[in-house]
Design goal:
189 residues, alpha+beta, four-stranded antiparallel sheet, 48% helix
Length: 189
């Protein structure tokens, strides 16, 4: 058996190329400083410039709101005088609780149709006197009044004939009637 010699790679030349370390030179330090300044400049846009612009916009909107408030305060300068005039001419709580007198008079004008001798309105009560109608017409007038939503009830106090004592008791004779009407607020539907 023959002995073989093992062949292993061998380095037969030497590399003498040496790369010097340039990281300590002023140019390299300048590049690092320039890189750090660029990063700081980029961050300052988000951390300083944008925040400053938001603050400036907030100050401008605050100034606009203060100007608007100032103008509104100038408009309200005579509020006390206006409120005094309003309260003088507006309805009080008592007056709001009462039924509108014009509505009551319109109801009486529409329902009665005869000559009204006297009308007295006090609070929720109306005292009405009319003449020149028959008893049947008086009953129709009372029915028309009771059909109104602002009338709680009616009561005929007197219905006397206007003919003299010697006259006969005729159903078609004109009478003088006195009616008491109790009013109520119209029901809200």
């Amino acid at each position: 058996m023959s002995k073989r010699t093992a062949s292993y790679p061998a380095k037969r030349s030497m590399n003498l190329y040496y790369k010097p370390d340039r990281t300590t030179k002023p140019a390299t330090i300048g590049l690092y400083v320039l890189f750090v300044l660029t990063c700081l400049l980029g961050l300052s846009k988000f951390l300083i410039y944008d925040v400053g612009m938001e603050a400036l916009q907030a100050q401008q909107s605050l100034a606009a709101a203060e100007a608007q408030l100032e103008s509104l305060n100038l408009e309200l300068a005579d509020y006390e005088e206006v409120w005094e005039r309003y309260s003088r001419y507006s309805a009080t709580d008592e007056e709001r609780a009462l039924i509108d007198r014009m509505e009551v008079l319109a109801l009486l004008d529409q329902a009665v149709g005869a000559s009204l001798d006297a009308v007295s309105i006090s609070g929720e009560t109306v005292q009405l006197q009319f003449s020149g109608v028959t008893l049947a017409q008086t009953a129709q007038i009372v029915s028309a009044l009771e059909a109104s939503p602002i009338v709680a009830y009616t009561m005929v106090n007197t219905a006397a004939t206007t003919q003299g004592e010697g006259g006969s008791a005729d159903a078609s004779a004109p009478v003088q009637a006195s009616v008491l009407i109790q009013l109520q607020k119209e029901a809200v539907q």
